[in-house]
Structures are given as structure tokens and as C-alpha cells.
Amino acid sequence: MKQLNVDVAIIGGGTAGLGAYRAAKAHTKNVVIIEGGPYGTTCARVGCMPSKLLIAAAESVHQIEKAPGFGVHPQGEIRIDGREVMDRVKRERDRFVGFVLESVDEIPASDKISGYAKFVDHHTLRVDEHTEIRAERIVIATGSRPAYPAVWNELGDRLVINDDVFDWEDLPEAVAVFGPGVIGLELGQALHRLGVKVKLFGLGGQVGPLTDPQVMAYADKAFKQEFYLDADVKVESMKRLDDSDKVEIQFINHDGELETFIVDYVLAATGRRPNVDKLALENTEIELDERGVPTADHYTLQTSVENIFIAGDASNQIPLLHEAADQGKIAGDNAGRYPDIRAGLRRSPISAVFTDPQIAMVGETYRQLETRLGGCGCFETGEVSFENQGRSRVMLRNQGLLHVYGEHGTGRFLGAEMMGPNAEHLAHLLAWAHQNKMTISEMLDMPFYHPVIEEGVRTALRDLNAKLHLGPEMVKHCLDCGPGC
């Protein structure tokens, strides 16, 4: 077995792993990165980029369908060529992956170890059965994978995860999507708009990542108006039909009746699990959370074993690309400079779901605030509906609800949850304000053009400022910058 001695070993070659490698290299040249599968990030291969390509195709269809609302009537029937749709998705996906692989190619071959690593002890990794690595410091950046009930494997190749969708040659006729979270909502709505018969099922009533009951209820209602969604379904049976490439699902529908849905695929979008269960962590003294995932300091990414760090989807923190990039940089930097550990920049939380309307969250969630401040009534909620917001109505995109949260006494902006038009952009403005620890009054001093959707943010902030007793009462029809603001 080959023996290596290195300063830093990175386990995983995705977003967090590549970021950790670059950061560690700034301190020492003796760094290796271990990858058992293909290089290239989850985002580029099977995540955010290919899903947005599918969503873009669906949005183009939806715009044509909405045109008569403006008095514009397209001629003839809309024809969706599933093969052309998927061909573009895969071509552009491969292009994005290519950019990642170009950066991987720049890594010296001697720094790349192929295989799956397991811990022998706090300083030793065994890669398959060919290499043993003695590392002074180790960064775990192994990512995550889809998780679903094992019994679903009985469906064979009729069970798919989001990774599989982007390898389809053509669009199927019917799909059942289980899991109305980020992935399920995005893919479910996109497939529906592309002409696929879709039913979206969940358990427990959760819709997306939302925690604010009113915003979640609004989202549930909005999606149900477009496609079948039951976020707390009772499934009686699900089985693959004999001698068929079809799956039969029997469930209790919204009318309380037993309904049968025959589909080409069951898409499991029921969550993801960190890839830490095959690392032989039992050979270390790393403290684990209730899911068996190593815990780590939020600012240094150092685990309970001081020479081991963890970053990205493998950690017990936020599983998003920009978070993985930040965490990888922090973990790699600290592994490289160890024992001179530094607290890294952790940005204000921001997340988005690219449905239509979009969903977004910023700062502390409603649930976090209820836990932290709810008992003392120390925060208030400002609200705006986009149904009568001027620019939203102009564009026939007037669906949505925004809640912003502020702290009594200080007037500080604490967070927001929303569903609405351009929520991805509204969330960025609010995240910047949150990271700068702005008060509601300071945010209201910022410029707002007319007519723009962002004026809805100002309306919500005015409502919040009044409820915090820091500003005047809301004027129902404010005309200080034009109608419909």
C-alpha cells in the first residue's frame, strides 16, 4: 500500500472541497484532495444550474400562456418538444460542469488522490485499499446525497432522484413528486408547465423551507391553484405494475376519496443526508449530532477533534452552494494555518426557491425568532401583499406575501420570509441590510424608485416600523411617490 505524509488532506472534490484545497494551499504546498467520484460540484452537475435550465424552459411556456391576459394572443397550439428541452438542459449543464473541470485540471496530478477515504485514526486516512495518508490536518467535505425510504427501491428504475432527471432524453408523460421542499417544488412546477402530468405529495404539511405559518399557507394555496399539491397526503399503496414501466399510486385526494395515479416515474425529493456515514468516524472521537453528523464551531468549522475540520453539505450547517464555498474557504484556511485558528466571515443567511412566485428567506426565520424572542413578545411582523402592488399588477405577477421581522426597542431588522415576484432580488437587498445590522428606520431612509416591486418592501417596512412604535401609522393609500406603490 502506498504511504503518503501531508500537511492537509481534503476529503471531497466538490464546492467545499475545492475551496478548502485552494485556501489550504495558501499556507502550505503539501495538500492533497481525495475524490471517489467525478469531479464537479453538485450545483453544476445535478443541482442549481441544470434545475434552473429546466425552470427557464418552463417559464418560457408560461409567458406564452399568460400573453392573452395582456391582449396578446399567440397563434396556434403551443408545442413542447421534450427532446429539445432536455437536449438544451444537458448541453448547458455540461458547459457549466466544464468550467469546474477546467479549475480541477489546474490542480497538480500529485495532489489528487482517487478513491474513497476512511478514518483509521485522527491523523490517518485509508483510501480504498491502495493508499494510506498520514495527515497533520484533515477537512471533511464529502457533500450530501438524496435520502428516501428504502422500501421505495422496490420500484427499480421507475424511482428517480433529481440527479436522474437531468439525464432524461425526453420528458415523461406523468410523474409523482414526493417532497414539497426546494427540489420538489422547483422540479414539480417546471415539469407541470412543460406538459408533464404532475402530482406533488408531502407529509406533515411543510411547504418549501418556510416557517412563517401565514406565508406558508399563502404558498400552499398559490401552488394548489396551479397544480396538484397535497403537503400531508395519505398514500394507501404504491407499486410497480407487473410487466410495465409504470407505477400505480393510490392515495386519498382532497375530496377524501381514493384516487389512482399512474406514473412513469416517482421522483424522490424527500431531503438529503450528509455523506459521513461511510467515513468510519467511529475510529475517531469526533462528537456527532443526533443525525450522526460531526458538529463544528460555526465560525472556525473546527470539530471537537482539533485537527479535523468539516465544511459544506457534509456539515450540520446550511446546505447551500454559497455557504459551502464560504465554509470550504474557512475550513481550508484554518487547516492550513493550524494551530493559528481564525474565525471566518459567516454571512447573513439567505435562501431562495426558484418557483413562480419565488420563495425566499433572509436572516432569522420566524421559527427561530419565536423560539428566541416569542415568549417575551420582543419582535413584530410587518406585512405586504403583492396582489395589489403596482408594478406586480402591471406585469400580471401580482401573487405573493412578504413578512419582515423587527426587534422592539432597538428597531433592528431581524429577518424576512416571503413568496412573491422577484423574491430572489428582494432577498438580496434585505440580506445586505441584515448583514449591516440596519434598523427599520435606516432601511426606510434608503432610495426606492417608482414604479418597482421593491416598493412593496418599503410598504412592509413602514408597517413594521409603525408596529414597533418607531414610525407613523400606515397610510392605506400612500401617494408620496405615485400610485400603486
Automatic annotation (TrEMBL):
InterPro entries: FAD/NAD-bd_sf, FAD/NAD-binding_dom, FAD/NAD-linked_Rdtase_dimer_sf, Pyr_nuc-diS_OxRdtase, Pyr_nucl-diS_OxRdtase_dimer
Residues covered by the FAD/NAD(P)-binding domain: 7-328
Cystine connections: C43-C48
Keyword Oxidoreductase: yes
Residues that hold NAD(+) according to the record: G179, P180, G181, V182, I183, G184, L185, E186, G271
Enzyme Commission numbers on file: 1.8.1.4
Assigned keywords, A-Z: FAD, Flavoprotein, NAD, Nucleotide-binding, Oxidoreductase
Reported cofactor(s): FAD
Pfam families: Pyr_redox_2, Pyr_redox_dim
Class in the EC hierarchy, top level: oxidoreductase
Domain Pyridine nucleotide-disulphide oxidoreductase dimerisation stretches: 351-460
The keyword NAD is assigned to this record: yes
Residues binding FAD: K52, T142, G143, S144, D313
Lineage: superkingdom: Bacteria
Record's cofactor remark: Binds 1 FAD per subunit.
Database matches in Gene3D superfamilies: 3.30.390.30, FAD/NAD(P)-binding domain
Active site: H450 (proton acceptor)
GO MF term set: dihydrolipoyl dehydrogenase (NADH) activity; flavin adenine dinucleotide binding; NAD(P)H dehydrogenase (quinone) activity
Record-linked PANTHER family: MERCURIC REDUCTASE (PTHR43014), PYRIDINE NUCLEOTIDE-DISULFIDE OXIDOREDUCTASE RCLA-RELATED (PTHR43014:SF4)
Family: Belongs to the class-I pyridine nucleotide-disulfide oxidoreductase family.
Protein name: Dihydrolipoamide dehydrogenase
Organism: Vibrio hepatarius
